[in-house]
Specification:
Elements: E1 12-13, H1 17-22, E2 27-30, E3 33-36, H2 42-51, E4 53-57, E5 64-68, H3 73-78, E6 94-100, E7 106-116, E8 119-123, H4 129-138, E9 145-149, E10 154-160, H5 164-169, E11 184-190, E12 193-199, E13 208-214, H6 218-228, E14 234-236, H7 239-248, H8 284-292, E15 297-303, E16 315-317, E17 323-332, E18 339-346, E19 354-359, E20 362-369, H9 373-379
Parallel strand pairs: 1-3, 4-14
Antiparallel strand pairs: 2-3, 4-10, 5-8, 5-9, 6-7, 7-8, 10-13, 11-12, 12-13, 15-18, 15-20, 16-17, 16-19, 17-18, 19-20
Length: 380
Amino acid sequence: MTEVQTDANGLKKTPMYDYYVEKGCKITDFGGWGLPIQISKIAEEHKAVREAVGLFDASHMGEVRVKTNKVNAFEWWNGLITNEVSKITYDGKAQYTAVCKEDGGMLDDMIYYRRNEDELIVTPNGSNREKIVNWMVDHNQDGQVEITDETYDWGLIAVQGPKAEELLGRLTDTDLASIEYYSYKADQTVAGVEKVQISRTGYTGEEGFELYIPAADMLTIWKKLVEEGQDLGVTECALGARDTLRLEAGLPLYGNDFDESVNPIAGGIAFAVPKDKEADYIGKEAIAAYRAGDKKEASRGFKVDGKQIPRHGMEVKNQEGEVIGVVTSGTKAPSFGFPIGFVRVPTDYKVGDKIIIDVRGKEVEAELTKKDWLAVHKAN
């Protein structure tokens, strides 16, 4: 794996780091990586993704290749993840899953890709990459599979928005329309750069793609996308807009909405933990026991009819003033004009119920809602 560079504060540099500095962006610590909160203005970046097309540097995400050695890579991987690998029925398919400890607590949530029947690529969150790689190695007794951490060899650009396909189509001969959601094509050519993986995935709730690019060529493709997309309203985006976009779309973030103390059922991703999975996996018994228990928590959405914005970690109370849970994420939704977010509360509390959130000593009333505001908005 290529050696990663760090800045004066010890933050890892993505292939875009020097570009950010040249543009005068303020760099912040995001899971040990140096990334900007905004490149222009968060509201403008957010709006561009919803209405046109935006570019995100997601190079902090991990890329870990697993190949068959003494046992099949997918059979081995099935013993570590909550989802069922047999659902990935063809090369180029992707799946979302969680990786848990024996007590059911989540080590990470991630997407992995089927390269072929003997090879897969795992993409852990950047802040969890080393932990996940070590976890994989610890459970690779006697070299059952071949594990290679290629994170620093790759850059990752997310091209997101209703005009994403039109923009990317100007730079590649790949039949983008043929790439299904949660699928990809490997070894494509984009802007003259070879060996680019084009994946129809994203973290914004909009149509779009993620481009896994050899690190040395990432800035070339980024600049070409900016150049070619001027008439489409292309906008360079950063962490702030990514957060508001994912919250409107009901998408969780590791470290905010769940962590090692939270199992995937309470964390709101039960869909990634099929009840009928026959294969044993780490955490299976603990998760099954939690599901069968009487006291369970759920991740719910909320909205506030006011200006006070609840933030991560704030207490949630019921109408009687009893503490029942916690805010896991919160922001003002640019698309709707009011504060929204996620809370983790007992399953007794349903959509439509009123709750009280302690916002810096002020009791703010909120209503429990569905989490995916964007889907509700589009349906109406």
